[in-house]
């Protein structure tokens, strides 16, 4: 079996993988980083979003071997080493964007990617960007509110759905 080497959450990581091993499987099963969730196995739900070389990707659509040599950021690497939450995580907490929590890691990772591309998105832009992420608790209103709050915008005028 070939070996893959990558940097995950700022630390070197490696492991033997079969050619068909998905990045999400490598992260969860080899590296024991279980915050990246498997929700649908069809690339529709977004629960497995991670950042590879700074870009948001669904880890269920990428083979681990494709990430060889890459910088990978998972939800476990978002908070500061001392446990201080990232501003997006803090906004999800403050604005109850968590619901059951299953979609939250993917939502946070997608939100971070959106805010890196567009620091002050409109409500419509946030909703459009999250089209590939599914929340089965129908918590989109608070998720959108949290993302806009993380961008520093006033969220008091966001109308309820």
UniProtKB/TrEMBL annotation:
InterPro entries, A to Z: 2Fe-2S-bd, 2Fe-2S-bd_dom_sf, 2Fe-2S_ferredoxin-like_sf, 2Fe-2S_ferredoxin-type, Beta-grasp_dom_sf, Diverse_Oxidoreductases
GO molecular function: 2 iron, 2 sulfur cluster binding; metal ion binding; oxidoreductase activity
Keywords: 2Fe-2S, Iron, Iron-sulfur, Metal-binding, Oxidoreductase
Official protein name in the record: Carbon-monoxide dehydrogenase small subunit
Tree of life domain: Bacteria
Domain 2Fe-2S ferredoxin-type residue range list: 2-78
PROSITE patterns listed in its UniProt record: 2FE2S_FER_2
PANTHER family: OXIDOREDUCTASE WITH IRON-SULFUR SUBUNIT
Pfam families: Fer2, Fer2_2
Species for this entry: Roseovarius pacificus
């Amino acid at each position: 079996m070939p070996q893959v080497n990558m940097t995950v959450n700022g630390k070197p990581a490696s492991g033997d993988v079969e050619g068909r091993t998905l990045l999400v499987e490598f992260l969860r099963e080899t590296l024991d980083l279980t915050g990246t969730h498997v929700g649908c196995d069809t690339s529709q739900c977004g629960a497995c979003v991670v950042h590879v070389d700074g870009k948001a990707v669904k880890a269920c659509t990428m083979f681990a071997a494709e990430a060889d040599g890459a910088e990978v950021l998972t939800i476990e690497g978002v908070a500061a080493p001392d446990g201080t939450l990232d501003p997006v995580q803090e906004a999800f907490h403050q604005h109850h964007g968590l619901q059951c929590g299953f979609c939250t890691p993917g939502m946070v990772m997608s939100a971070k990617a959106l805010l890196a591309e567009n620091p002050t998105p409109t409500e419509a832009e946030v909703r459009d960007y999250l089209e590939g992420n599914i929340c089965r608790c129908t918590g989109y209103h608070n998720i959108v509110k949290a993302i806009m709050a993380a961008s520093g915008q006033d969220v008091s005028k966001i109308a309820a759905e």
